[in-house]
Amino acid sequence: MFRLQGSKVLAVEMTGDSVRAKNGSMVAYDGEMAFKKLSGGGEGLRGMVTRRLTGEQMTLMEVKGRGTCWFADRASEINLVALRGDRLHVEASNLLAADAGLRTGTTFTGLRGASQGNGLFTTTVEGHGQAALLSDGPAVVLRVSPQYPLSVDPGAYVAHQGDLRQSLQSGVTFRTFLGEGGGEAFQMRFEGDGLVYVQPSERNTVAGDV
């Protein structure tokens, strides 16, 4: 159903089914398609209420029809993730599309979300199907194991999946350690067993340059 055309355009072939995609990300389609804006982005009342309270921006549209629809967003790189009953945590701005077999919602992330200025909730995608993630530059997938925890710059974080525990670290930063000054005042730490997706470019965060 999902396939990449190059690295920056997602083609979704539909036979009467539907897909959720970032609002305004459709660049072309053939066949017959119907578009519907989804308020709140997540499913159910909880998804709508938490986004209104925290200001997290994830506006999705539902595309349904027969034919092929192409999606892109500001020439960002697109990364396909296959889910087999597990859950993916992703920054709202990094989610391009999810097929009809997946449920979208929100989950509480505590201080990590507050440090980024993205609210106290992050987007979840779970079930069986494919999701398309956006990244500023080609995303790198890093493995976390019980023996090797991982620390990530909040501005480079895109998503994670698996049995991972997430916490916030403060103190000496990567850039301070290198003598460059500034940089992120916090780092995200992942422990357990799973995958973390990072991008080779940093978004602006509240934690930056503290």
UniProtKB/TrEMBL annotation:
<dbReference type="InterPro" id="IPR002838">
    <property type="entry name" value="AIM24"/>
</dbReference>
<protein>
    <submittedName>
        <fullName>AIM24 family protein</fullName>
    </submittedName>
</protein>
<dbReference type="InterPro" id="IPR036983">
    <property type="entry name" value="AIM24_sf"/>
</dbReference>
<dbReference type="InterPro" id="IPR016031">
    <property type="entry name" value="Trp_RNA-bd_attenuator-like_dom"/>
</dbReference>
<dbReference type="Pfam" id="PF01987">
    <property type="entry name" value="AIM24"/>
</dbReference>
